[in-house]
Amino acid sequence: MDVYLSGYRKGDLGWLASVFELGVTLRHKLAFYGVRDQLICGEDRHYVYLNPQLKAKVKIRNWTKAGLLRLPTFVDFILLIKQS
User: Fold this and answer.
1) What angle do CA 13, 22, 65 make, to 5 degrees?
2) Three-state DSSP class for 80?
3) Signed CA dihedral, 76, 18, 53, 38: sign only
4) Which residues contact 63 (CB under 8 A, 6 or more apart)?
5) How far, rounded to the nearest angstrom, does the alpha carbon of residue 24 sit from its chain's CA centroid?
6) Does residue 15 contact residue 56 with C-beta atoms inside 8 Å?
7) Which value, to the nearest 10 degrees, does the dihedral of the CA atoms of residues 26, 27, 28, 34 take?
8) Which SS3 state, helix, strand or coil, does residue 73 take?
9) What's the whole-model pTM score?
10) Does a structural domain hold residue 84?
């Protein structure tokens, strides 16, 4: 499943699409830290919210009864290349 990242949890990194943190390697964390400041659009006590421009591929086990992703696990970033 492809999702846009809409924020991240402060402290231990967990990304919001639904919050997911499984499968994120150090290499992916460092790549994310390199671009996150350009995407910030707000924050509260626990989360920083991002303009949804960063896309990621996640695996899910299924959907919950509430319509949320069950056990979302990060696979990789999806690179969007702008055509000029």
Assistant:
1) 105
2) coil
3) negative
4) 69, 70
5) 10
6) yes
7) 110
8) strand
9) 0.68
10) no
Assess if residue 33 is contained within a domain: yes
Contact of 53 with 12, CB cutoff 8 Å: no
Q: What is the rounded CA–CA span in Å between residue 39 and residue 52? A: 8
pLDDT tens digits, 6-60: 888 888 888 887 567 778 889 999 998 999 999 999 999 988 998 888 888 889 8
- For residue 58, give its domain range: 2-78
The count of structural domains within the chain is 1
CATH number of domain containing 15: 2.40.50.140
- The residue behind tokens 């009864």 is 65
How far is the C-alpha of 45 from the C-alpha of 9, rounded, in Å? 9
Give the whole-angstrom CA distance, residue 26 versus residue 52. 22
Q: Smallest Cα–Cα separation from 68: which of 56, 77, 58?
A: 58
